[in-house]
Design a protein that fits this description.
Layout lengths: L12 H32 L16 H23 L2 H4 L4 H15 L5 H20 L9 H8 L2 H25 L4 H30 L8 H27 L2 H23 L8 H20 L11 H5 L5 H5 L19
């Protein structure tokens, strides 16, 4: 029988630890987006931009400062998954969007208007709803149990679909549409990210058990999960850099969050069967909280003067990266593709 849990029962100590770690992670990661973007801009001014396949940012100290900040945040995020279910941890990434939007307003002069403020409020409300109704963490006593969950037919089918879709995006769509369609880069990051989170959670559980006296490092499955984590994180880093360098931070952050979180929750539900431990009311409440967050994240891009971009224009827009080099301010230019404008 599934374990009943609601906010009246109180959160478990593990869920509280996961909550604190997830919030700390979001603070660091939200700040890292801005620092890395500044580093990418500075590096692009004197070399080949990351969005054009360049790697001059690797010798830019400001980019490395952002990367170190992100690593700290990812370590906290890594630890959070070891204590709490992905349904609780992943949606709290909305906090990083709020931090990123506010700092982008202050540092990058990407204006945050009433729509952006409302988006931030909705993200907070949705996150709170999910936190209050999240399931308890599954009791696991060995990394072998996680491996068995990962090798069940349902999750193997999901993983195969994800890898296939990522390869199609990388080798077919990115060469043609990478510079004009934000969903191409972010699609790769999000798809691979859902697999990396499952592996991070498995590795985190293994380390938590090891530190508690049950050595999991003797099992080859622990090292297999480690290799998957490394491969997935490197892939995410590469394509996230390209997305940040090519498109507006205020648009990259929310769309990446929505896709990454949605796929991560799906992967967790398939692999760890989170919803098996909840009743329909709790599941529906969590989904309502998540939809509230999604509403907030899609309001955040409407931070320009005037109407701002819609969902459609966010999914298919032109890169204005070269306009800055020609003396124009890209942040003052609408995100809508000129060739998609329609007169009425």
């Amino acid at each position: 029988m599934a374990t009943e849990h609601s906010w009246r029962d109180g959160m478990s100590s593990d869920n509280i630890k996961g909550l604190v770690l997830a919030l700390s992670s979001s603070l660091f990661i939200g700040a890292s987006f801005i620092v890395k973007k500044k580093g990418l801009k500075k590096a692009g001014a004197s070399g080949v931009r990351a969005g054009s396949g360049g790697y001059s940012y690797l010798v830019e100290p400001l980019w490395w400062a952002g990367m170190i900040t992100m690593v700290v945040g990812e370590i906290a995020n890594f630890a959070a998954y070891a204590f709490a279910p992905a349904i609780l941890v992943a949606p709290l990434g909305a906090v990083s969007i709020i931090i990123s939007a506010v700092l982008a307003h202050i540092i990058l002069r990407e204006k945050l208007n009433a729509f952006g403020i409302l988006g931030c409020v909705l993200c907070v409300v949705g996150s709170t709803t999910i936190v209050l109704h999240a399931p308890q963490e599954r009791e696991i006593e060995s990394v072998i149990e996680v491996w068995d969950l990962a090798t069940e037919p349902g999750f193997l089918f999901y993983a195969a679909l994800v890898v296939t879709a990522a390869f199609v995006l990388i080798f077919h769509f990115i060469p043609q549409y990478g510079q004009t369609h934000i969903m191409v880069y972010i699609g790769v990051c999000s798809l691979i990210g859902s697999l990396s989170v499952m592996s991070v959670k498995a590795l985190g559980i293994a380390l938590k058990l090891t530190f508690s006296g049950m050595n999991q490092l003797i099992y080859p499955q622990t090292w297999a999960f480690t290799l998957v984590v490394i491969a997935c994180v490197l892939t995410q880093m590469n394509y996230l850099n390209k997305a940040l360098d090519t498109f507006n931070t205020a648009v990259v952050s929310p769309i990446y969050y929505v896709m990454f979180t949605s796929l991560t929750i799906l992967a967790s539900v398939i692999m760890f069967k989170d919803w098996d431990r909840q009743n329909p009311t709790q599941i529906i409440t969590e989904m309502c909280g998540f939809v509230t967050i999604l509403s907030g994240t899609f309001l955040l891009p409407k931070t320009k003067d005037g109407d701002g971009p819609t969902l459609t224009t966010s999914l298919s827009m032109r890169s204005f990266k070269h306009l800055e080099e020609d003396g124009f301010d890209p942040e003052a230019i609408p995100l809508k593709r000129p060739d998609s404008s329609r007169t009425t």
